[in-house]
Amino acid sequence: MAYSLLASLRLPAAAGMVFDHSDLRWLVLGGATALTLAGVAALVRRPVLAAVLLLAGGVCGAAMGAPADLPLAQFLAFDVALGCIAAAHPRRTAIVSAIVAAGLFLGYQGIRLVTGWGVAVTETVLLTFAAVVAWLIGRSVYDRREHAAALRARATTDAINVERLRIGRELHDMVAHNIGIVALQAGSANLVIDTQPAVVRQALLSIESASRETLAGLRRMLVALREADPEQSAPTPGLCDVQRLATATSDAGLAVDLRWAGERRTLPPEVEVSAYRIIQEAVTNVARHSDARSCQVSIDYQDDELVIEVLDAGTGVGRGTGGGYGLIGMRERVNLLHGDFSAAPRPEGGFRVAARLPTLASAP
Description:
Elements: H1 2-10, H2 23-41, H3 47-63, H4 76-88, H5 91-114, H6 121-191, H7 197-226, H8 242-251, E1 255-261, H9 269-289, E2 294-301, E3 305-312, H10 325-336, E4 340-345, E5 351-358
Parallel strand pairs: 1-2
Antiparallel strand pairs: 2-3, 3-5, 4-5
Helix pairs in contact: 2-3, 3-4, 3-5, 4-5, 4-6, 5-6, 6-7, 6-9, 9-10
């Protein structure tokens, strides 16, 4: 609108003026200014209406100039608005705005033909090109924003799934082992309840201890899930707890032959936790799915990896390819550390679980 006012003041006697400096001319310019301001105000809530108002204001302002003049500056506000609409609204709204722009441009050219002014080809091409560029820029911004939002949503979903699987593995490994000890002790006590009360008493003490440990572990996990500060999360087990695990399992009736090899050293926390949980789950599987009375656990500290092996001589079946979550959880832990995992029956009888976990700081 400022451009139209300045052009009118600079060219008061232009030969091609449609109107002279009458009240009607200034009224039309005032109306064009009002339309432009109304379009700016409606841009956020009613984008299509805003495009119509801004374009109508530009057309009215341009109509007050020379017949051959269709200035690009007169429609810059509309081009900016068209770009904003394309950038902030869905494709349907952006397309409707573009169609409205094309319709009004064509309508204005029709008026020029009817009044004998002729079609301003060059100016029309420039205006159309500017509108198209503004629309494409807006759509590019919109698509980039949508893509970024989709990536964030996918990352959030993946993070939730990873955390859900981690919590599931922790619950399974912790609860299944202690419940297995409870089942072993209860079964042993039931066999000698009438003849060996001392053994029954010891079994009940072991059941109580395992139950309290399970409740304490569940409580720690619930507290960790409620805490917003990761520094206050519950402590996690490691290889230093394997001896205690072997002792508790042996007391429950399954003798664990624990063998260490290599130079014992502190490993990355994720390796410590995964190694402990793999041993715990493998020993639990021996107790639950095998008739073996003992198993062998080997832990070998090598230069760049930790090798774990759990062997038993039982005759239980269904542990190699079953649908339980124990083997799945162990395999997931190893895969997250980019290690190797195997679980299969032994040719000489029994079952073997083996895992190789990279221990270098540069390992993935």
